[in-house]
Design a protein that fits this description.
482 residues; Aldehyde Dehydrogenase, Chain A, domain 1; 21 strands; 6-stranded mixed beta sheet; alpha/beta; globular; 2 domains; Aldehyde Dehydrogenase, Chain A, domain 2; binds ligand TXE
């Protein structure tokens, strides 16, 4: 049984409560770790450490901070296999995916912000020959970073690295469902020379210790990724305290396929967009809209392509779909498949749990599921399922596709497949989302603004956006007497 501890002031310490939550390995459906059940007392200790550290860290030069972040990146890279296995055991995703996506991206996040921070410049405006304006940018102070269970270290690092790069101290809370790799990061930070108290990692329940972070008066900004409902709860506490907030929330992303698409490529990319990471990525294309002239051909080819995505033991390289992250989420996803039948849908592939033999016989696995025959505005097509479940909906005109695609409360990402450039740009401009991929999916340039509209979030991460979020800007105007 692995006991996880909080990482406060550069040391691994037990929660003040000395109480622990059960940590599960979803592939075997069994408890394998203990997770601190922290509360506001642990937050208070972390804030004390962060306050003392801020004076030191904020006075490091940008280059000194960047050097340490680059050492942390190298430290993770040196232990990539170990981090990847820990991620898979905690989250249930295939090990090969942890190795090629999650952990390498965490390394890239540290490298990217370590280097991008070196080129963030201020502004200068010359009003006239005697009046000049320049901006000064300073760290906010102590910030809170709260991250989810689907891409644990990938998103944990995506939040803390811009904050650290700009001289802030961080109180970070990973999901209690997938705490392992965040916990391991503490020792890498110590080895890299990150001063103690700069990064504090606290584990525990969202409504308990997560809300204590949100509510703490000395924590001046909150960066959150998770469910829309949780985002609203965080806002309810933080908004009246005038805290800066970056909220990356849910999605119900449309994948719009026109009959003039590159067919083979579209089928393959649509399958990846639907089922990568068991469909547990906020950017997954879970509502597939196909032009009616292509519908039957696409449906048949898509089913055949998805059949290749074998569900299995995440430790096996042959497994394309791993375990669902938790029993409650497993049941939530199955409940939506049941709802789809009630709403008149037809299950054309999958539709239930999978018995994986051997060590995974008690694990939580669901077949990649494809549903057709649902109204575009039914609950299954409006609500975020966040699992290996997609729907197919035909459309006839571009206008109808846009109407259906834009019909949900979400607006995070969209994929469009067409070889007609004018149509691609026209549809991209009219889609209500923060991110649009044309003839591709999940191609990521970390310099680009990342985030959604409507109930998919507030603000943008990525590039200079994230660095500016974690700083305050001051304009200084000087008049020189003639
Ligand atoms: O997320 P939660 P969950 C969606 C997906 C999923 C749903 C809920 O639909 O089914 O959100 O997933 C912490 N104050 N996404 O329950 O609850 C919590 O401990 C402060 C999309 O995992 O939002 C965890 O660290 N913190 C998303 C983090 O918030 C609170 C990825 C996320 O947990 C809190 C994951 C509170 N009151 C889920 N309640 C994406 N956009 O990628 C919880 N937390």
């Amino acid at each position: 049984m692995q006991r996880i501890l909080n990482f406060i002031n550069g040391e691994y310490v037990a929660p003040v409560s000395n109480q622990y939550l059960k940590g599960f390995n979803p592939a075997i459906g069994a408890v394998y770790s203990e997770v601190p059940d922290s509360d506001e007392r642990d937050v208070a200790l972390a804030v004390k450490a962060a306050t003392a550290a801020f004076e030191v860290w904020s006075n490091y030069t940008q280059e000194q901070r960047s050097d340490i972040l680059l050492k942390i990146a190298q430290g993770i890279e040196n232990r990539l296999e170990e981090f990847a296995l820990a991620e898979t055991n905690d989250q249930g995703k295939p090990l090969w995916l942890s190795k090629v996506m999650d952990i390498p991206r965490a390394v890239s996040n540290f490298k990217f912000y370590a280097t991008t921070a070196l080129s963030l410049s201020g502004e200068f405006h010359k009003t006239d020959s005697q009046i000049f304006n320049y901006t000064l940018r300073s760290p906010i102070g102590i910030v809170g970073c709260i991250s989810p269970w689907n891409l644990p270290l990938y998103l944990f690092s995506w939040k803390i690295t811009p904050a650290l790069a700009m001289g802030n101290c961080v109180i970070a809370k990973p999901s209690e469902i997938t705490p392992m790799t965040a916990s391991m990061l503490g020792e890498v930070c110590n080895a890299a020379g990150l001063p103690k108290g700069v990064l504090n990692i606290i584990h525990g329940l969202g409504p308990k210790v997560g809300s204590s972070i949100t509510a703490h008066q000395d924590i001046k900004a909150i960066s959150f990724t998770g469910g829309t409902k949780t985002g609203a709860e965080i806002s309810r506490i933080a908004a009246p305290m005038f805290k800066k907030m970056s909220l990356e929330l849910g999605g119900k992303n449309p994948n719009i396929i026109f009959d003039d698409c590159d067919f083979e490529k579209t089928v393959k990319i649509s399958a990846a967009a639907a089922f990568t990471n068991q469909g547990e990525i906020c950017l997954c294309g879970s509502r597939i809209f196909i032009q009616d002239t292509l519908y039957e051909r696409f449906k048949n080819a898509f089913v055949e392509e998805v059949k290749k995505r074998k569900v299995g033991d995440p430790l096996l390289d042959t497994s394309r779909v791993g375990a669902i992250v938790s029993k409650p989420h497993f049941e939530k996803v199955l409940s939506y498949i049941a709802l789809a039948k009630e709403e008149g849908g037809s299950i054309i592939l999958g539709g239930g749990p999978v018995e994986v033999p051997g060590r995974c016989k008690d694990g939580w696995f669901i077949e990649p599921t494809i549903i057709e025959g649902l109204a575009y505005d039914c609950r299954v097509n409006r609500e975020e399922i966040f699992g290996p479940v997609v729907t197919l909906v035909p459309f006839s005109t571009e206008a109808e596709a846009l109407k259906m695609a834009n019909s949900t409360q979400y607006g995070l990402a969209c994929t469009i497949f067409t070889e007609n450039l004018s149509k691609a740009h026209r549809v991209a401009a009219k889609i209500e989302s923060g991110i649009v991929w044309i003839n591709c999916w999940l191609e990521r340039d970390l310099r680009t603004p990342f985030g959604g509209v409507k109930q998919s979030g507030v603000g943008r991460e990525g590039g200079f956006e994230a660095l500016k979020f974690f700083t305050e800007e001051k304009n200084v105007c000087i008049k020189i007497d003639s």
